[in-house]
Predict the structure.
Amino acid sequence: MGTTTPPRTLAEALRARGDESLAGLLRARPDLLNPVPNDITQLATRAGTRASVVRALEHLDRFALQTAEALAVAPDPAPYDTLLSLLTGDGLDDGDQRDDAGAAITAALPGALSTLREQALVWGEDDRLRLVRTARELLAPSPQHPSPTGLGPTVAEATAGMSPGRIQEILTATGLPATHDPVSAVTALAALFTDRTRMAQLLDTAPVEALSVLDRLVWGPPYGEVTPNPTPPVKWLRDRGLLLPVSTRTVVLPREAALHLRAGRAHRVPEPVPPAVVAAAERDPQAVDRAAAGQAFTALSTVEELLKLWNGGGPAILRAGGLSVRELKRAANALDVTEPIAAFWIELAYGAGLLASDGEPDERYAPTPASDEWLDLTAEDRWTHLATAWLAATRSPGLVGGQDAKGRALSALGPDLDRSAAPDVRRRVLALFAELPPGAAPDAETLLRRLRWERPLRGGGTPAAAAAGTTATGPGEGADLRSRLALWTLNEAELLGFTGRGVLSSQARALLDEGPGAAAARLAPLIPEPLDHVLLQADLTAVAPGPLERPLAETLSVLADVESKGGATVYRFTPGSVRRALDAGQAAADLHAFLAAHSRTPVPQPLSYLIDDVARRHGHLRIGSASAYVRCDDEAVLNEILADRRSTGLRLRRLAPTVLASQSDPGSLLEALRDMGYAPAAESAEGDVLITRAGARRTPPRTPPAPVPEGPPVPDATLLGAAVRAIRAGDTAATVVRKETPEGPSSPAPSGSLPRTTSAETLATVQAAAMTGSAVWIGYVNADGAASQRVIAPVRVEGGFVTAYDHTADEVRTYPLHRITGVAELAEDGKG
């Protein structure tokens, strides 16, 4: 291929890459693909835009970012040795103490540079390394956004507006020969600050207080305020150019002087090696799996209880969306958990598609039809369904109770809970768990330190904002969001049964590595088998010594109230709970048979008496709609109701000896009489008793909330290959060499210009190309008026259309001839 010349621009550097390298760039920065660039020049332009560069910088690890920051304060272009020196220092201050660190930096720097080159943030050969201009602007120092390295401007930049006379005074004070050329004077001053020997001699003459001032500025920020009458130490530094004026009240330590004081290092602590995640404790792996399985079963029970709680229609939805604080507290009390944990379970059920809005005018949350299908699954499959939904969810329950950027409260199931970084953080935290040996519990602080090293700029702040210590998100978020997401992940993983006693379980490892099927197979033997019996006790309670079969659990939950949970669940029978079962259509004989069939102990006599007593009174009163009425064959009962002061608010009046009418609606009348100690039953217009079955309310079919993507999705290999071919073909069309024309010799087509020929010339040229099978270069304007350049191989020309293989799109297309602006033949060495 001959000798290659060094690239002069980023576009030339990208053009010299192979297809695999270009595909790697597009894979690392998928935002460059939307839409597919027309050619390499457009790709390079897009890769240098501010938004794209910020996104790329946010995906760098700490050492790659430190490498980019060092290049931002290095000369442009910078040799590899200069960059290495900025990271390791000149070695003249610590002797051999930094040898190990220097060796680690030397070993890691090629990899960091390779990453920066692959992402098109750095280009050029090793002797002329260039950081893209936008990245240099983001990372370079300024008074508004000091450099992450803590370095200030160079001597040349700081003295740009200084008078020649003032520069001469500085030269005289430092003992340098005077010169009338300002450029030479600035160069001489910079050379003094970069000369180790002469700079040491100058500082040896400095007052001790002046050295203390330098110590405060050397690692940044390099700016300081001065009074109109500065102290002698500051005046000594200012007279010798070690502090240069930025404004009337601000001075700065120039970069060359700071680097001397730092022994040539751009960073106080370079971090070439990722910090290790340390094991804080060792657990028995089998005990971990059992603990995680127990917590997984508790998670299933909690979600089932939540669905049951909202079975007949859950809480109303706030006007702004989400759940009110009162309803969240009510759900927390019902689930016997704290409000933040209740928010997690609610959001988990919502994210798994088990809860949704019913869409009615009086909009409420309710279980979805998918919840019934979920309940029919085995316990292990139900867990993998929840676990998979949690891994992919971008909604972050940990934000509930906080405030958004406008100071509005964030509510459970409300808007603004999506954080696109959440899935990546969850998987990364679990991956770090998995890197430890089975049974090892990681130390949380070292895990967070590792996450910060891997993505130091992630979490909502831009590089410039992060350098300035500001954030671009709501209160309490900013650059710390990734750490908060990691801490929430640790807690949620334990609640869900991913971890047991702080250690990743084998079923969670199987889910991450092999998928839901393998995880379910690992979990199944650890889940206790459901029981088909309970233990009835004389104090009107039933003890379930373990999980119950679903039909038994559902019937028992209607017939009795849950009194306590734990290793065993205690149910209590009350008149209200028995009436609830009768309202659901059960007869007293059915209840006696049910208890006898499912109790390992004899049915206690008090429980039999309770059922018979409630059943005898149940339905004795009948309530229907007139507005509402009470009907009873026993006139004495109605007389008793009318005489009761508590019935005054119902505004009852007698219509007949056995009928009372009320202005209240039937539901309110039913509840009021129950509160008065009666056991009325609702009836239909035909006089039949209405049976109220639990769980009758369901939303229409709903899809789970879609995770909010974190930028464009990573393209697959097929899309990458097609995109690279299209960019190559477009680049060929943009730089193609045409045959000689009568007007002049062959030349590359100017970028962005279209060929121009008459209609007759266009038709003749494409017909000739179709007969010879050669490729031509055309300009084309589509129906939207967008112009483009293409290289095509015409196959057929008829009816005002040319059918050709389009090298740019890598497919056969048909073009109207009237939309082709012109056509030119390719030179022999310009063919595809």
